[in-house]
Amino acid sequence: MILLSWLSIGWAQDSASSVVLYADRPRAALTQVVKDTGVNERALDPRRLRELLTETAPYLLGGTSAAGCVGAPATLPEVLKQINVAEELLLVMESERAQDAIEDAHRRWRCLNEPAESAIGARLHMIRGVVRYASGDDGRAQHAFTDAFHYQPDLAWDDDFDAELRPIFDQARQNMETTATFLVTPFDAALTVRVNGQPVLDTGAPISLGTGIHFIQLIDDDGTVNNLWRRVDAGQTLQLVDPRRISNDRIARLSEPEIQSELSLLIGASPLSTRPTFYAPGDGGSWRYAGGDWELMMPTARDRLRANRGWLILGGGASIVAGSGLMMTSAVLAANRRERIETDEDLNTRRYDEIADFWPLLLTGYWGGAALTGLGTASLATGLAFSIEGTF
Predict the structure, then answer these.
(1) Residue 90 confidence (pLDDT) above 60
(2) Of all helices (H) and strands (E), which one includes residue 19?
(3) Lower CB count within 10 Å: N or C terminus of the chain?
């Protein structure tokens, strides 16, 4: 039976659909959430916020997600090889084959499994713009040149290319005057951040970006590369968030709208994002997060009664047992007195008659007390069971 009980408890925790976030003291957090919400404790899965912050990968806020890797992981030498092939094909006026080669280089670039280099990124998009111009697509050629300036803002014109392409190149440079911002919030020392092939230092200073698509790499100390692509427009801010640098005091500050927004984004990026409901203890109640909104929940009178029903039944049972005990004790004392009177001829008849008159009532009290004792004992057991259920 004990083994089955432990198995049932473990199953309930594994299948829990709602998460209770806490800073410390999980027992206190669970108790408060159950009291404030009326949710069965077996449906709750307590998680320490610090553990959630550690398990959640860094993520970006702002901008719009752009297409990322489609295909197998690639290396810089593979990208360079395809760029060189495209350039050679351009020299012999093989524009269609050059386009195939440069697009293959671009697909590999999006799937890099090593740190990108800004010079290679700039050359890739420069050749891509030239190939597009050779194919008669001036508009997309200008977009490619704009992307090249993201990697190398001081990129110079190459006189080996067609001079008629120079005005499109210069226009792309002018488009870079409208900028967005990349906000570099402090991140863990074990994380390397590169934006368009350039390493970012943990300075906290904002970085100016041109409007368009940007390539952000997050590289862990074990060499794992996470490539992110974001399109940003003029005036937008792109912000890196590293959960490992978020402090553990967020639970106590959930009444602040900024903290609610921060934790909402964290939950969305965490491994627990599929859970429908999150709870967190707070001052004056417990916070509930579901469907993108935070709500402060406080217990109603009915919830408080339900939460305390075990102790109420326990108290009522104890009172019944105490009262029935007094009744039985009085009846037993009266019976002893009657026995002494019956065996002692010196006692007067009047006292015997008094005892005799009350004897049926005392006898009823005795058996009534016995029955009430059973009822009170049952109430004690029921109240104890409810109290244990509400505690564990």
Answers:
(1) yes
(2) strand 18-22
(3) N
